Amino acid sequence: MALRFEVLGRFNRARAARLTLPHFTCQTPLFMPVGTQGTIKGLTTDQLEEIGCQIILGNTYHLELRPGSQLIDDLGGLHKFMNWKRALLTDSGGFQMVSLLHLADITEEGVTFQSPVDGKPMLLTPEESIHIQNKIGADIIMALDDVVKTTITGPRMEEAMYRTLRWIDRCIAAHKKPDAQNLFGIVQGGVDPVLRDICVRGLVERNLPGYAIGGLAGGEDKDSFWRVVAQCTAGLPEDKPRYVMGVGYPLDIVVCSALGADMYDCVYPTRTARFGTALVPEGVLKLKQNAMATDERPIDPTCPCMVCKNYTRAYLHCLVTKDAMGSQLLSYHNLSFMMRLSRDLHMSILEGRFPEFVRGFLRMQFPKGDVPKWVRNAMVVAGIDISECCAPAKCPRDAMEVAGTDISEICPPTKCS
Amino acid sequence: MRFAVTKVCGSGAKARAGVLQIGSSSIETPALLLSTRKGLPAFVSRDLLASLPPPDSLLLHVCPTHFMEVPPSKTISNIGGLHRMLGLPDHILLAAAGDSIESLPASEATNKFGASFETPAGRRLVKPADYMELISCMKPNLWASLADEVPAWVTEKRNKVSVERTLRWLDECIALDTDVGENTLGVVVGGSSIEQRKLCATEVSKRNVSGFWIGGLGLGDSAEERCSILNAAVDCLPLEKPRLVSRLGLPEEVLEGVAAGIDLFDSTYIYQLTMGGFALIFPIDMVGKKMQDDTFNNSGVDFTKINLRATTYRKDTSRIVDSCSCFTCQNHTRAYLNHLLNVHEMLAQILLEIHNTHHYLCFFRSIRDAIKSREFDQFRQQFVQNRRAHLAAAVV
Ligand SMILES: [Zn+2]
Ligand SMILES: [Zn+2]
What we know:
The complex is a heterodimer.
Chain A: E1 4-11, E2 14-20, E3 25-28, E4 30-33, H1 45-51, E5 55-58, H2 60-65, H3 69-74, H4 78-82, E6 87-90, H5 94-100, E7 105-106, E8 111-114, E9 121-124, H6 126-136, E10 140-142, H7 155-174, E11 182-187, H8 193-205, E12 210-213, H9 222-235, E13 242-244, H10 250-258, E14 263-266, H11 268-274, E15 277-280, E16 283-286, H12 306-310, H13 313-319, H14 324-350, H15 354-365, H16 373-382, H17 387-390, H18 396-402
Helix pairs in contact in A: 6-7, 7-8, 8-9, 9-16, 11-14, 13-14, 14-15
Chain B: E1 2-9, E2 15-22, E3 25-29, E4 31-33, H1 46-49, E5 59-62, H2 73-79, H3 82-85, E6 92-95, E7 104-105, E8 115-119, E9 122-126, H4 128-138, E10 142-144, H5 156-176, E11 184-188, H6 194-206, E12 211-214, H7 223-235, E13 243-246, H8 251-260, E14 264-266, H9 269-275, E15 278-280, H10 294-297, E16 305-307, H11 327-331, H12 334-342, H13 347-372, H14 376-395
Parallel strand pairs in B: 4-14, 5-6, 6-10, 10-11, 11-12, 12-13, 13-14
Antiparallel strand pairs in B: 1-2, 2-3, 7-8, 8-9, 15-16
The site of one zinc ion has 8 residues of chain A, from helix 12 and helix 14.
């Protein structure tokens, strides 16, 4: 085990921790930006440090294609290759194959796929995935899992879960650098609580340095999503980090953190930046909109980042989706936003004001009080009272009923349920 | 704006070093104006720009025509002008209507009312009044008048018209300017005609301008023509005012311009290098220095630059230039840049623009040092010799 995980503060299920990895000591909850090919699109490593990035994610599948893990190894590992001094995490490569290549096929041996270079059939086994990740040299490496569409149920999902458990043993056996790299197991099982439970128990038995909750953020309904997270975090050990894969919407991160998750990754903040969308406390700001052309305010007046301190929406409007600088500046802001969210989660838990933080966050995102049902349900389990963000101004009917006026004619009850 | 020539040297005693004082910044000349897209370098944001050597990196060329569609000029004015909008309060912004990438002069569509430009949004006609509206909202430190730039191959008649229009528009611009020309650079055109160039330069000199912008070069003119055109124009300009030449960017062209008495250069050379995956590597200090060994070993590349896309850099863990102190060279290897270029990652352009800009600014500093120590002719000669030596080595 090459990490230390110390919980520094709690609120019910939520925790603020210090995660000590070989290359960096991180504070959780934390968001990891995705640097697919050994770079976060449009930002230098200095800028990433400035923003407060702690862990960057690299995609094994892409890195193996170019420049190749052998070359990365020969040149001293990915940290040195991209000159990133803080922590790195690599995925197993399996998910990318299944999602990017139509002709991927999963057997007991591994993932068979057509080489995008010459079309020849190739095989990614659990051993090969770990071997490649050992060469890349990230602080955290991920086990190869049997990836199926989240919404699938029945025998295929069951097969995938059991195979994931069989493969974890092959991953553990193949892992050559347990003293320098931390192998995380991935909980699978779709939205089936029984399968999830078997998988959690199976993985916990293996005493891994950390655990990921996989197979989410893939089109399942939000109520299933949070229930799976809540179930897994409850079953996973207290003294190990918990990583919800592929989650990156600020609301999802806040909810998952309240349920006891610690780590997140997603391409969303940087990808949406390239399309001209900025993350703001109220939700999103689409800088492409015509109204932005004359808007002399910064993206977010409360954001202390370099972009918000210097640029107006009007100027960014003329850059976004047209000039490289547009996506550079917006990526810078969006990642700053995610890092600030991570810090706020950590500090509010540590300082015992986590519920206030969650309520403040929800008030900004849902000023009309229309907090989605699934969030309200999740907060009950998280033990956070958010009634004050939901109830009062939910609809005119509520307000007027309080005032004792009969408005049933102008506001049919169904609309406000 | 104040300008003073501090040293003159070279065979014709025309190459000159000077100091350009704008606000609280003073910039030594000969100097390079960094090219921009919508006011910022194509890939270098303000925090990265700050890592480039000051005060040389404070000088930027801004194209008002990049802002013709959005934001509205009133918005630019409300924000507080270009400096505030770009987040570059201390930079020196020089505005001129055209560039070589996003706003090319379209002489065939230019008419007596205004100059036409080829922009990403299509062709746009800019009248002196439109142009001055943009200038007054943007408040650049210096601005060039609107010009009718024509390529070298137009007829004598068209060339004459271009001079007449450019002079008339200069008068119109100054008449519309609240500072009546105090921050104006008068544009000198005249195509390949020595006579028209002299006429234009002489006429512009009579106006109340604070300096000169020599345009209409790099539009189909040959290297030989250019030398005499440049000299003819410069000889008609007063010694005490700065001279800027547009679109001459290659190191040889810069040296030629300096020899003719040019003080400021705006060019998209660095942008073009960067887009092509090239990194400048030529030795900065030309006098009495040997080149880096490997510059000879890369066949197919001239001695000034290398193409980092080439497979030979796949495992090259050296810096682009060993002795370079730029952010890129201090942090990244040729191998990493090669990878970024291969996978089409934007960071490649960011890092290349930083290095190339840094390298070129150092080249300009060396030119100034050579002038100050009266070694400019030697410096220029050495550069040309190195280039020839390399070409010879490449043939063998
Ligand atoms: Zn910001
Ligand atoms: Zn450099």
